[in-house]
Amino acid sequence: MEEIQEEREYGRWEWFFYMIVIPALFASLLGGVLLSLLGVNVLGNVLHWANSIPYVEKLVPDEYDLVSDAEKEELDKEKQVAALQQDQAKNQQQISALKEEAAKKDATIQALQKQVQDLNKLMEKQRATEEERQKQFADLAKVYTTMSAKNAAAIIENLSLEESVTVMTKMKPNERADILAKMDPKKAADISILLKDSVVNKNDDIAALQERVQVLTKALSETRSGASAGASDQTLSDTFAQMPAEDSAAVIRSLMTTNKSRALELLKGMPADKRAQTLSAIAKVDKKEKDNMAARITEELLR
After folding, report:
1. Is residue 6 part of a domain?
2. Is-contact 301 264, C-beta < 8 A?
3. Which stretches are transmembrane (predicted)?
């Protein structure tokens, strides 16, 4: 005999539990999972909300993290970007300072070059004037030698000592002797002493100009060589710092065999972290080739 069982109706609380509570919990759980996948810190927000309820706040911890892992990663990236931007700004400042210094040195070089050119022109002009002056004295000496010794002596006695000596240096010794013999003994003695000690040179202005040109040329050479060497070494050091450690290590190893001092200068000019990476790469090659170049370089850098 078949027994027909009637479907039992749910009670009020059973209906509330099965129809409302369980679906609500399931929906909350599913929503929390979805929000977590989207980067929302669901647990942290729930704890924050629970911590604001009286009495319940005692049951939840005070310390909790409202930042999700994705947000933490994003914050770390932002910090890294800010640090890189700050480093870039510093590098730009250093580049600007180096450019400004190079511009100043270029201006100094140009100014020195202009001074040298101006002084060379002035010296050429003075030289031409002096050559003309010496020619005039030589022509005057020829005129005096065509006169009688007595007349030439009378004229030369009325010249200044400097002019007298300059004119007579253009004469032959026998011509000078004849004219001096006809002069006043005191004047002849003074001219004789000056003739003995005199050396015909360009005037003092030309000598001073020559000395000044030499000083300026030396300063120009030192400025140019200093600017070229300093900029070149620093530029090479910056280039090595931007290269991969393995590539810079290969170049440094090659330089150590051909130009040891230059290799050490380049390493000293690199940042400390890049220098350490390069030495580490050299040490790796040392292990393969059974060499000890990294240790030798370190000893040289510590001196």
Report:
1. no
2. yes
3. 15-38
